[in-house]
Every structure is written in C-alpha cells, then in structure tokens.
Amino acid sequence: MSLLELRDVCKTFHAFGREPVKALRDINLTVEEGTITGLVGESGSGKTTIIKSIMGLEKPTSGTITYDGINIPEAKGDELRRVRREVQFVFQDPTSSLNPRMTVEKLVGEGLLVHKLETDRSRRRARVADLLTMVGLSDRDLDRHPRSFSGGQRQRIAIARALAIGPKLLICDEPVSALDVSVQAQVLNLLQDMQEELGFTVLFIAHDLAVVRQICSRVAVIQSGQIVEEGPSETVLANPTHPYTQALLRAVPNPNPTVARQRAQERLAEEKVA
Amino acid sequence: MANNSPARQTAVFLVRKAVSSVITLIGLSMFVFLMVKLIPGDEARVAAGENATPAQVEAVRKSLGLDQPFFVQLLQFFGRLLHGDLGTSITTHQSVLQGIEQVMPQTIELVVLAIIIIISVVTPLATLSALRRDGATDVAIKLFVILSAAMPTFWLALLLQYLLGTQIGIVPISGRLSRQFNIPTQTGAVVVDSLLAGNPLAAWDGLQHLIVPAIVLALPFGAQLYRILRAELIQVLSREHLTVARAKGVPQRQLVWRHVLPNSIGPGITLVGIQFGAMTGAAVLVEGVFGLVGVGSYLTNAVAQKDTFAVLGGVLVIGVLVVVSNYVVDVLQLIRDPRLRAGQLG
Amino acid sequence: SLSGCTAGRASDGSATSGSSSVVVGFKHEFNTMDPLHADYAQTNMVDNIVYEPLVQFDAANDNKMVGMLATANRVSPDAKSIEFTLRENVVFHDGTPFTAKDVKFSLDRYVRLGQGIASQLAGYKSTTIVDDSHVVVNLSAPNAFFISGLADVYIMEAAAVSAHAGTDDSQGWLQSHEAGTGPYEGSSTSSPDGTTATRFDKYWNFDATRPKQLVFRRIDESATEHDELKAGNIDVALGLTASDAESLKGTSGLAVNFVKTPGQTELFFNNSTGPTADPKIREGLKLAFDYAGGYSRILAGEGTISNGILSPAFTCLPAPTPSVQDKAKAKQLLAGLGSTSLDLRYQSVDDTQTQLATLFQSNLKDLGVNINLVPIAFPDYLKTLSSPSTIPSLMLLNDYIMTSDPGAGLDKLYNSANIGSTNKGAYKNAKVDALLDQARVTTDLAQRCTQYKQVETQVESDSAAAYMYQVAFPVGYRSDLKGITASWSATPISFQTLRLG
Amino acid sequence: MSNTLTKIAPLRRRTVRAITGVSGVQVIVPIMVALLVILAIVGPLIAPFDAVYRSNILDSLQAPSAAHWLGTDGQGRDVFWRIIAGAQSSLLSSVLIVTGFSVLGILVATIATLGGKRADEIVMRIVDAALAFPPIIFALGVAAALGPSLSSAVIAMILTGWPVTARLLRGVMKETMSQPFIENARVLGVSRTRLMLHHVLPNSLDVLVVKWAGDIGNTILILGGLSFVGVGAQPPSAEWGAMVTGAKNVIATAPWAALAPGFAIALTALAFGLLGDILQVRFNPALRRR
Amino acid sequence: MTALPEQTDTRPEVDALLSVRNLTIDAGTKPDPIRLVQDFSLDMFPGDRVALVGESGSGKSVTARSIMRLDPDFRLSGSVRFQGQDLLKLSDRQMVRVRGHKIGMVFQDPMGALNPLITIGEQVMEPLRIAGVSRSEAERRAKDVLDELGVVNAAARMKAYPHEFSGGMRQRVVLAMALISNPSLIIADEPTTALDVRVQEQVLTLMDKVSKERGLAVLLITHDLGTVAGFTDRVAVMYSGRKVDEATVDNLFEHPAHPYTQGLLQAVPRIDQTVPRLLTIAGAPPHPAARPAGCAFNPRCPKAFDLCRQEVPELRPAPGGGVVACHHYPEAEAEAEAEAGEEQGA
Ligand SMILES: Nc1ncnc2c1ncn2[C@@H]1O[C@H](COP(=O)(O)OP(=O)(O)OP(=O)(O)O)[C@@H](O)[C@H]1O
Ligand SMILES: Nc1ncnc2c1ncn2[C@@H]1O[C@H](COP(=O)(O)OP(=O)(O)OP(=O)(O)O)[C@@H](O)[C@H]1O
Ligand SMILES: [Mg+2]
Ligand SMILES: [Mg+2]
C-alpha cells in the first residue's frame, strides 16, 4: 500500500529579474508503507524541493502530493495537523536543524507537547529519556544543549525528536552527508534498527549510492528535476539502465585499491579522449 | 537573456529604490507635519508679532492659510512642493528653500568632514584592532574608542574649545573664517568657496575652523563604525579564502588591502549611509558651541517657534540627503560586490 | 594665517584697533532685515544703522525727542494727527533723494502687512503728503502715545522696495536687502549667521570716526563670545551672561558696560483666574523672593533691584518702592494657598531666567509652597495670552516697554481692554482703565506724567506682578570704542552712536 | 574547517591576560555597572535634601573644598550630592528609554517577520522614514509637543529609538527564520506564537542584549544633549545632563559645576559601553571564541 | 618520545622533498597548552602521493597548516624540511616566498576558498603577480593552467566572479591557483568533501592527471578512506593528534594494522557488497585537551587491554609493512594480530 504518492508534481521558481527555474518536472514517486525508499541525485537535482513540497513549505506549481489520502498542498485544519503528526523529518545538518537554545529534553519533547500527546511535564521527561536511550544517548543528556554534542550525537537527537511523536512516515534529507564515515555508519545503523523495530516508512534522500544501497529497498534516481530511473535498489544498482545512474554509480568511491585504481585509469583515459 | 543582464538588474533595483524612497519621503512629510501641528502654540501669533492686536493676528492667520483644516494645509503643502516651493517661514518671512540653502552648505561641510575623519581614522584603527585581536594594541584602541564616545558631545565641544581654542590656541575658537579673509559666497561651503576663489590660505583657515567641531561630531558615530567594522573584520579574517590567499603567498599588506578590507566594509558603508541623517541633526550640539549656524540650528529654532514649513522643509531636505546618501551607499555596494550586481543577494 | 584667531589682546594694537572694522558678536537667530520686524531685537540691531526713523529719543538727555528724518513735528491739539517736517538733502543708499512719499509708503506698508512693528502703529489711519518735505499722519482716534512709538518705525525707499514687491509685498527681498538712509549700507549677503554693514559715505550726518564696517556674527554661547572677545576676534560682545561679563572686568584693552535698559525682569501673575486671582496670594509670592541674593549672585550685582512697575530708565516715575523679601509676611499670606502647587512658566532659553526661577522655587519651598518649573516656548506663551483661563499662574519674563513715553506700554500691559492679547497678567482695574483712557487724549506731557504715576501706584498696590530687576544688559567691548550706551531706538545699544576712539 | 582564526583566539586572550592583566576589564566593568546601579537606588536616599535641592544663593559657585567636595553650582547647591542624587533619574530614564524602544522594536520586527511580505514592506518603509528623520530633531519635536520635561524627553527618545532596533532585529530574525531548525519546528506543527516565543526570539535577542548595554550609555549621552538644547529635566532636578547644561555658562569661571556631572555621564557611558563590548564578545557568534 | 620513529620508506632522507620530523604542535598558553599534534613524522619524495586520513578533529588540517606555517599562534617544534630547508627556521618573509610558490595548497570549501569580490583571473594570477611576473605573462599562464584543468573558454571565464562558477568549477580554480607557480608539492586539505559525488570524482581525476603529468608530489587529506584508494600510493592514519598507522595503499586496505584503521574501513558502506549492518567504531574521538591516558584510542578500541590504558604505544614496523602504533604489535605477535584484524574485518 502506498503511503505517500507524488503525481505529476511540477515546481517552477520565479525569482525577480531572473529566468524561471524548473526545479521539478512531472515527478511521480510512490513510497510504499513499511519500506525505506531512497531518492538519489546530485546537488541541485531537486531533492530538497521535493521534500519542501511534502512538508507543505513550498506549493507545487502543479500535481498532487497525497499522504494517506490527504492532499498535502491543500491540507488545512485537522488534516494538516494529522500530516504534521504523522510525517516527520530529519535534516542534513544536525547543527542548524536543532534550536541551539533548547535543551535536549525540550527539543525532543516539543512534539509531544505541541500535539498534546503528553502534557504532564514529568511524564514527558520520562518519555524523552526513553527515546534518548533508544537512540543511544542517556537520560543524563536531558538538560544539555545540542551544542555540547558531537555531530553524530546531534543527528541522534534529531532522529529522537522526529520519532518522539511516533510518525508513520520519516523523511530524511541527506541525514549523513555531513558526518564522518565512522559516525555515518552509526547513524545509518540506528535508522535501520529503528525502522525495523517500529515499522515506520522512510523516504531517504542521499547523493551517495553506496549509502542508499546499504539501507534502502527501493530507489529512485532524480536528475534535473526528473525521475530518470526507479525500482528495487538491488536491480537498479546492479543493472542501471539510465546513463545518469551509471555515472552516479561509477562515481562512488570504492575502498578497494585495485578496483579504484583501475577505475581511475579508465577515467583518466576518458578525460584524455574528451 | 537581455532581461537577465546585470546592467538591467541594477537599473531595476535602483528604480525600485527610487520609488520606495519617494514613498518614504512622502510618509516622512506627513509624519513631520503631524508632529509640528501637535506642538502647542499659535503660529499666527508668532508671525504677527508679540504685540499684535487680535485683529492683526487673525489677518495673518488667514493670509498664511493657517485657518484651513489640517488636511487642507497638508495638501496645499504637497501642491506647492510639486512646484518646488517649500513654503515660507513664519519667523524669518523668507522662503524656506532659501533659508535652508543658506544653512545647508555649512552643515554638509561639517558632516562631510566628520565622515572623512571617521572613515580615515576608524578604518586603520579597526583593522589594526582586528589583526591584533585581543592583544594589547587592540585593547588600547578599544578603550580609546569607547572612552572618546562616552563623552557627552556638547560637553566635549565646550571642553575642547576651551582647551584647544582658548588656552592653547592651536585652532580658532569659533566661526567659519578668520576676519581677515573675505570670500565671496558661491556654494556656501567656506572651504569650497575659498578654493573656488583661488585662496588656499582661506581654505586652510576654514578647515581649521571646522576641524574641532567635526572631530567632536565624529566621535560617537566613529565609535559605532569601529564596532561594526572590527566585528566584521574579525569575521572576514576567519574566512577560508584568506587562508587560501596566505597559502598563495600573499604578503600581509596586500592581504589586508585586497582581501580583507573590501570584504569587510559592506556593513560599514551601510552604517555611514544611515548615520548621515543622524549626524546632520546631531550637528546642532556642536554648532551652538562653535558659533556655527547650520541646518540643525535652523531646525531647532523652527521647532521651538512652531514654524511648520521650516521644520518640514528642513527635515525633507535632510530626508532627501539621506535618501541620496543611501543611494550612493547602494551604488558603492554594487561596485564593491559583484554578487549584488548579479542580483544574487538583492 | 593663525594670527587673526590666536592673537590675544596684547597684540591687537596692529591687527584690530588699527582696522576700522568692528565685529559684533550677538546671540539668537538673525532672521530678516525687513524693518517690518524691527520689534525683534536682532533685526533691529542692524535696521537701526541702515534705516532711520522720523524721530528718536535721547536716553542720555531725559528721553528728549530728537529729529532724525523729521526735523520738526507738531501733534494736533485733538491728538488726532501729527505733522512732520522732513529733513532735506537726505539720500537713500542708492542715491535717490528722500521725500515725503517714502514716509507714506513705509507707514502704509507696515499697516498693510499688519505684523511686527505694525503694532506700534495701532490707530494709524493715513498719511497725507503736503509736499516733498511735509507730511501729516492721521490717526483714527486721538492717541497721544502714538508719536513715541515711531522711534523704531523706519522709513524705506518707496521706489526700490516697490520694484521688488513680488507677491509678498517685498518681504522676501527685504529679508536680505535694504533700502534705507542710515549711516551704514547693509550687504546683500546677510545670512542666519550674520551680516555685514558698510559705512555710507553720503550719509547726511557723516562722521569719519564711525567704524568703516560693522560685522555682525552670531555666536550663541556666552563662553564662546567671552573667549572670542578676549582673543580679539570680536570687538563687541552682546551675548554675554552676567557672570562672564563680570569676569571680563579688568582685562586690559576691554571694557564692560552693563547697559541699563528700559526692560525689567518680572514675574507676572494671572490676576483673573486661579489661586493668583487673590491679591493676598500675589503679595505673598511677591514677598517670598530673595531679591538681594539673586541680585548679587545671579545678576552679578549689576542693574538694580526694581523700584516699581517701571524701569528706572523712564523719566516720570512715582516714589520708588524697592522690592524686598519678607519671609514672615509672605508665609502668613501664602497660608491661604494650602497645599496647592503652582506652575511657574519661564523661557528656559534664557539662563538667567532659569536661575531666577530656580531660586524662586527654592525660596517658596522654604515657605512650604511647591512650585513646578515649566519651560514654555514662545509660540505657546503667546497662545496662552489669548484668554485669562490659559494665562499661566506665574510667568517669568523680561518685559520691555519700548517707548520712552511709557503710556503705550502701560496701556498694553494693564488696560483691561487688552486682556486676551497684550495684557499679560489679565489685570483688570477700572480706575487704571480710566486713567489710561484719559492719558491717551492728553497731549500735555507733564499732565500725562501725573496720570502715569497714578496708574503705576495703583497697579503696584494690586500686586499685579512681582517686579524683580531692571534688565542690565552686559556688553563687553574693545575699550577704545565709544558710544556704547543705552538707547531707546535699539535694545540694548544702538550702533548709531558707536565711534572709534 | 572554516574558521581557523577564531580557533586561534583563546590563545591570544590568555597571552594578553597573562602579560597585561587587561582582562581585568571583564571584572571591573560589571563591578562599575553594579556600583552605578546601587548608586541609582540609594543615591536619592542618602543625599541630604537641602544640599541637593535648596538654593543657597550666597554660596554659589564655590570652588571644591572640604565642605563641598566638588564645589557648588550657580544656586549654591552641592555638586557632589547633586551627582549622587541625580544618578537615579539619569540611569532610570536611560533604562526606561532603552527598554521602551527595545520592546517597541521587538514588536515591530515581529510584525515584519511574521506578517508576510506586504506587512514587511510597509513596516520597513515606515522604519526607513523614521530613520531619515534626525533623531535629535525628532526628539526635540516630540518633546516640544509634549512640553519640555524629563518624562517627555523619555517618551521622545523611546519614539526615536525603536526604528534602529526594529531594523536590526528584523534582519536577525529573518536570518533566524531561514535556519533549518525553524522549518523543523514548523513541520512539527508548532504554532506561530510558540515559534516566535520559543524559537525565533530566543535566537535573535543576543544582538539586542548587546545593543541594550551600549544603548544605555548612548542614551545618557543623548539625554544630556537634549538638555543642552532645552528639552529634558527641569530645575531643581539633579539629572546629570541638566546639571551640565545649567552650568555651561560658567564653564570658564566655575568649571567644576559642569565638569563633574560631565564626568559622571562619561563614566557611566563608559561603563555601559564596555559592558556592551564584553557582551558583544560573549554573544556575537562572529566574535565568540570556542 | 625521544626515540625517532622508524621509517616506512627506505629511500634516503636526504632525497626527500618534504621531510617532517617529530612535528609537535601546541596551542594555548604555556601553563596549560593544548597539544594538538604530537611527534608527527612523514617523508614525501618527488612525485609521491600520500594520503593523510583520520576522523574529524584528529589533527590533519592542523598538521597541513603547520607545514605551511599558516597559524602564527601555534608553537611548533621538530623540523619540517622542504627541499633541504627547514621551514620552521625561515623568517616570515622567506616563508611568504615558499607559500604558493613551492608548495601549493587546496582547501575543502571551494566557495569559501575564493574571494567573492575579485575576478577568477585576478585570483589565479595573484601568486605570479606577487612574484613580479608581468600582467600579460601572468594572464597567459593563468589561461594555460585553467585550460589544462578543463575550464572551457578560459580567457573569457577569467573575467567572471566566483559566484558565477559551479562548485566543481570553483575547485578547479582553487587548484589552478595552487598550480600556477609550478610548485613541487601540493597539499590538498579535503578538496572533495564538500562536493557532490560526481564532481568529487571529476576533481580527483583532475588532480590525478595533473600531478601525474607534472610529477607533482601530493599530500591528500581526507577522512574518507574510500576516496584515497585509487589515488594515492601511501596512507598515513592520524588519530587524536598522532600518526597511528602508515602503509602503502594496498597493504593498508588489505591488512589494516591498527584497530582504528580497521574500524574506519569497515564503516564505509560499499557499493559492491552489502552487509546487514555496518560495523562502527563506538564512541567519539577525545578532545585534544582531555585525552585518555595511554593509547588515545583505547576507550573505543574493541581490543584494548591494560597496557593500552597505561602507555602510549610507539610506532613500530607493522607485520604487513609500514608502521603502526599499537600495543598489539610488539614485534613477535605482529603477524598473529594482523590475522585477527583481518578476521574481524570479514
Ligand atoms: N527558492 C528558490 N528560488 C529559486 N530557485 C530555487 C529555489 N529553491 C531551489 N531552487 C533551485 O531548484 C533546483 C533544485 O534545488 P534543490 O535544493 O531541490 O536541490 P537538491 O537536490 O536538494 O540539491 P542539494 O544536494 O545541493 O541539496 C536548484 O537548481 C535550485 O537552484
Ligand atoms: N587554534 C587552535 N586552538 C586550539 N585548538 C585548536 C586550534 N585549531 C584547531 N584546534 C583543535 O585541534 C584539533 C585538530 O583540528 P584539525 O582541524 O586539524 O582536525 P581535522 O583532522 O582537520 O578535522 P576535520 O576533518 O574536521 O577537518 C581539533 O580538536 C581542533 O578543535
Ligand atoms: Mg538539498
Ligand atoms: Mg580539517
């Protein structure tokens, strides 16, 4: 069953005095319930624009975005509240996506408060403490500010914050690309574990195909605002049909000196030809 | 791509600014008009004179149009404004435009000199401060700046005048020009007029008259600029492109001039633009002490006399100057920053 | 280039006194040269030397009338017209001869414009030109005060002025131009920071010892003027405070004259409404002030403590009644005030007034009376005069009666007909009204004098105001200058009489 | 890493502290400010009424002596005690003014930030108009309209001060609004009020705190300036600006009467100026050291 | 700490292009200095391509910057010989001549690395202009370098400003600035981290090509082992201010000696194989001011034993070649441990 569905979504930006930018052209994308779907593409391909449209922060120029029967761009009142409660986000930069003035307790508990899921302060604190333990932090961290955590830990807080209200759909916009390899692995593992444990649906955005391959069951490749290839990640990554996917795939660094050197040779040769 | 060219974008930007400036000025006039009307007092009586009979007062009221309702007076003002007429002062009985023409050059001369002092003193100080951040030099400069800005302007004016003018005598005590010089008025700015008259001695003398008031006026504003500039410099100094420049082997001096300063002066330029209006007003605090009569004195007097059109005219002229100086600032920023030219930050 | 500014008094022998140019420092804005506004001191300071009136009064000689542009005058017995014989061989600064039509033009213009000096011409009907050297000024009602008001009414050249009439009856042009007959020609570059006047060599009463040039320079701060005078950059300082002037005394090469003016510093009460409508309260307030203390410290012991409602500069005065403090009596009289606190209005631009008001406030505080000092701006002050209900309970001001004959001044201040305009204290006394009405139609000076004295005694006994001090205007100047004395034609001094030593 | 030079900073600071002990400023300044605040609270209580307010005209303009440490003024009042007594009105009015216009500024900036494009445009035009009006002249006008007194000077300055605050704050708030954590809060379903109170304002007010301290000093100065042009506290008030103005005419003959309150103003402005500076270092991310 | 670490390379030190010996870097004041880097040694020979890897904060950039002496406030000890000259002993002025001329540097953030106000051409030419090369000559050479780096229409693009360039293009410009004076060593501090996968690939290829063509030595700094595999010959691994592992690329990837290196390798998700779970290094690196006693890695090390908590391991030859600083490799046990490490990795 599809939880989130984008149909023919287009988005054109009209900036004053500039050429209009067609950021999205006829995007069709389905996210099946209970899966992790990957969306890959290079910088500027329109990934964030899709996310903003799902958030309801950008209005698509045309097309529909349906979440569980609700058309998000049109949603108001109760519907919108439901979307806000059931769809949560984790962003690329864990530093700027957490309010530096709030303690971890407040940050993680904010959703519980806003959606009146837990209005009692001490019980909320206990819930937050549980969540922190779940993402590998401890209740000693409740009163600390995000600044005093490392990047990986901050991203854990961001995930805890998103998971606090028990979302059905979690959307992650390049949640690991700002992190060190070792931390990236921690966060990826965490996401994977949580998803398995809680069974929510994930839309995972990245530009690194290796990351996508690691955790996604399905993948969609986006280039210049268009989905150029879509399918189960095994298939797509094993036999990419679109040249763009192929190029992306080749660009992924391979920590195997022999393979890597060989690929470097190929590239150099291509470069010379070009 | 014509509609995308930097030139066009710049033009569009400037036109937009112009339109909003005009709206701003209209708003400003209405605002001032209302304010002056709220000042208690009877303009007609002021115009007619202290000993005027009630009949004389009424006659004057009628002839000045002061018997009309508020909005009619305002509309009449704008009507006259379209013809470049700012009205007549009730105390000097002179056209406001002419009155302002007489006092404006004086103020502009003072303010411009103060701005020149600010820029030429603050820039090196702030640069030195930022480069030697938290070192003894920085602390000394910072203390000096804060201390000099902590003195009440008029008090410092009195003090400096007494010390430098009267006691030591290295500068004139007051006025604009020593009595032995006789310079025909052309622009109204003594230094400029002296130069136009081909009398550099007189220009030098005029400059000496202006220097202390200009310094006193400059101090508090200079301190603001110093703060902003220092903070900005420190921020710019930490940018990666400076490390890159140093790694390229750029020597310190060139680093500062080519890479640090141009990237740091943006907010400073904007600040000076904003300060322009405030400085013309603040000039009143030094004008009195140094026997100068500028637009600040003119306006102070006009406010005290409830001289509606004189206040309006004065503020409007300052408003135009502020708008113009903001324009100049915008153009300078455009020249400075290619990203602005491309409308990327606009 | 610095010598001009830094040279002290010592070196002035060569630099300044040798030059016959005199620089005058003055205070407050110089608005216009138009003699229409000669009621304004800064305007009159210049107009007084570039223009001339028909007649003047000599302060040094019992306020006797002297002819300027008129050589003789005759007031008709019914006090309804005055005939003037005009001086011959007088020329305006552009060379045009002065004739009767200029007199008519000038007077008509003032009355037509109805502002400023026009208030001196109240009751003017018309001027009849008899011939080139004779005119008759007709009044709409008998007015014996009229002629003494003419000392500040200047005559301008009809032809030149009407040539620049414009839409404002030449006001714009006259703002910075002049068309007079006086000993000096005004420059056309007058501006708010001053103006320059040059000796007019075809003046009918030419005197080579007048300075060749008079430069008027605006300097608002007393301290600045004080320093500039000492440094030799100005030769006459008109904007000094009493204490600064006092400190100049004894400086070599400088002289200080506290010019005794016809003005008095007075504290007007609202005689009609509020607590001060009660004469006992007024008397109490009057007795509360420490006249002697203020005199010695705020006025630096210059001028005099008031002797009555008129300045000692006037000639027909009743027996002096010096103002004195009497705390005990004041306390007793003021008991009627209860705990009411009063507003004392004053013009804070005048530092002396601020000081006096502060002292008064403290004096009254000692007696248990609270006074709030509330500065008032000129336009507001004028507005408050429009009705007895808005007139301040207490208003501190310097009041000048500009004419040597006090009749017109007394009439303006104390005639109940003038409540709402010039009767500053809303003072009302039928006996005074009657006396003033009588005086207006009395052509005989001596007779009028008796009436004035009666008025003065009555007003004083009603405690219409507290009369504090004669205004003694401190003037510092180069000691080789002569003729810096009190004058009726300009406050405090007229530069007509200025001569180089 | 982008900000290598900021990393270097702590090092410098320590060196300087070790060599010159200059960072003593950071200890002294808060003490100075605290003393001033205490003075403002107890000043009027400890100063003898007569020395402060009662004219003792025959003792006027006495030079400093054992009886009158800072001499007497033109009314024969004790300058020292007047300065002590005047601390309250001088400081209190500045605090009031600065707080007043900060609140106004915050309100306006909030409207501009939350009210959408049009509200922003209108508000900023108004702010521009207000900025084009020379503050001193504006204050003069407002004070003239209300009648000269300390309270009207206070109101006048509140009305003059807000545009700068509003402009500054709007910029900062706009920047804060573009931070990802704001979006993050919005998609969590946070209400506008909560967004403003818990997310935008707390992250924007740093700037204001810094400005606040610096402004106190400035305000005392400008208040003095207003006194100088005839607007402000009236006799017998011992407000410092009014004291200087009242004594400016005797600056040559009795300099103490104007110098002493002038120094009091300068010292206060200095203390708050330095405080502002210290706070700026604490709060400005660009100057903050790790 | 007195013992000289053993060499990974057998070539004689005298031929080395760059020879860093026991470089120790301190920040902070004397009483409580922060030791950022301790006893770092590295040799590079002409044409060598060496990678310096390690997690964020391990001291890679500090080391690179200190080779160039870019931070005047660091206290450096040890020696940095470049072409036989000890850079640490040069005067500031002499150092300026080394920077950009003999050693070029490329930085992480291509946007931040360029001065936004100056044209690309000017910036590329700057090192030459400083060296006194005429403008036309400098322009010509700048165009050549940009051409070489694949900037199409270089002559025209030189007049453009940085904001008009895309990220990949900017990195080419940064590279051009580093290359223009024909240095013999390039230090590239995370030149691709901020870039997209595809651009990353392009830039690396480019560096690869240029350095091969010019026989340039390259010190590549990164935290991603994956990116170095195809590019470098030798890898040095840093952890918390120390070099803990150094080996040839093949050796390092095949037999990672240090547990930290092993951890890093396992944490990289691989496109050619899937694991149910990525293996991670638990915990976070220590702050330089608060390192644990003994081996800095011990709290995170799965194999730590008592000695690790007490004594700092020294660099010793590793079984598979290279050197490693780990108590698990006392000469005898080395082989066995290496085996164990491999098993773990599988
Ligand atoms: N507000 C906007 N106004 C104009 N153009 C925009 C705006 N937002 C995005 N764009 C343009 O839309 C395109 C898609 O941008 P988007 O941010 O969605 O890319 P992305 O795939 O998320 O890239 P990245 O990997 O860099 O985050 C880009 O060309 C961008 O410049
Ligand atoms: N001036 C300084 N004063 C004190 N500590 C510093 C200074 N500069 C850097 N450091 C610290 O030194 C350590 C090493 O920093 P460095 O920038 O070399 O790390 P890095 O390995 O390059 O990391 P990244 O991958 O994040 O670039 C860090 O902990 C950093 O905080
Ligand atoms: Mg994005
Ligand atoms: Mg680094």
From TrEMBL, chain A:
Keywords on record: ATP-binding, Nucleotide-binding, Transport
GO biological process assignments: peptide transport; transmembrane transport
CDD domains associated with the record: ABC_NikE_OppD_transporters (cd03257)
SMART domains xref list: AAA
InterPro entries cross-referenced by the UniProt entry: AAA+_ATPase, ABC_transp_ATP-bind, ABC_transporter-like_ATP-bd, ABC_transporter-like_CS, Oligopep_ABC_C, P-loop_NTPase
Pfam hit, one: oligo_HPY
Domain ABC transporter: 4-249
One function term, GO molecular function aspect: ATP binding
Similarity annotation: Belongs to the ABC transporter superfamily.
Protein known as: ABC transporter ATP-binding protein
Protein's organism: Arthrobacter terricola
UniProtKB/TrEMBL annotation, chain B:
Keywords for this protein: Cell membrane, Membrane, Transmembrane, Transmembrane helix, Transport
Gene3D superfamilies in UniProt: MetI-like
Residue span(s) of domain ABC transmembrane type-1: 104-333
Record's keyword annotation contains Transport: yes
Gene Ontology CC terms: plasma membrane
Membrane topology annotation: Multi-pass membrane protein
InterPro entries (UniProt xref): BPD_transp_1_N (IPR045621), MetI-like (IPR000515), MetI-like_sf (IPR035906)
Keyword Ligase (UniProt): no
Top-level taxon in the UniProt lineage: Bacteria
Main location as per UniProt: membrane
SUPFAM superfamilies per UniProt: MetI-like
Location relative to the cell: Cell membrane
A GO MF term: dipeptide transmembrane transporter activity
Transmembrane segments: 12-36, 110-131, 143-164, 210-229, 268-296, 308-329
Family the entry assigns: Belongs to the binding-protein-dependent transport system permease family.
PANTHER family membership: DIPEPTIDE TRANSPORT SYSTEM PERMEASE PROTEIN DPPB-RELATED
Protein name: ABC transporter permease
Organism encoding this protein: Arthrobacter terricola
UniProtKB/TrEMBL annotation, chain D:
The keyword Protease is assigned to this record: no
GO cellular component: plasma membrane
Domain ABC transmembrane type-1: 87-276
Residue spans crossing the bilayer: 21-46, 91-114, 126-146, 152-169, 216-234, 254-279
PROSITE patterns, per database record: ABC_TM1
Family affiliation: Belongs to the binding-protein-dependent transport system permease family.
Protein name stated in the entry: ABC transporter permease
UniProtKB/TrEMBL annotation, chain E:
SMART domains reported for this sequence: AAA (SM00382)
Localisation per UniProt entry: Cell membrane
Species lineage: Bacteria, Bacillati, Actinomycetota, Actinomycetes, Micrococcales
InterPro entries the record matches: AAA+_ATPase, ABC_Ni/Peptide_Import, ABC_transporter-like_ATP-bd, ABC_transporter-like_CS, Oligopep_ABC_C, P-loop_NTPase
Coiled coil: none
A GO term for molecular function: ATP binding
Record-level GO cellular component terms: plasma membrane
Similarity section: Belongs to the ABC transporter superfamily.
Biological process annotations from GO: peptide transport
Keywords, sorted A to Z: ATP-binding, Cell membrane, Membrane, Nucleotide-binding, Transport
Official protein name in the record: ABC transporter ATP-binding protein
Iron-sulfur in keyword set: no
PANTHER family named among the record's database cross-references: DIPEPTIDE TRANSPORT ATP-BINDING PROTEIN DPPD, OLIGOPEPTIDE TRANSPORT ATP-BINDING PROTEIN APPD
Membrane topology: Peripheral membrane protein
Residue ranges of domain ABC transporter in the record: 18-265
Source organism of the structure: Arthrobacter terricola
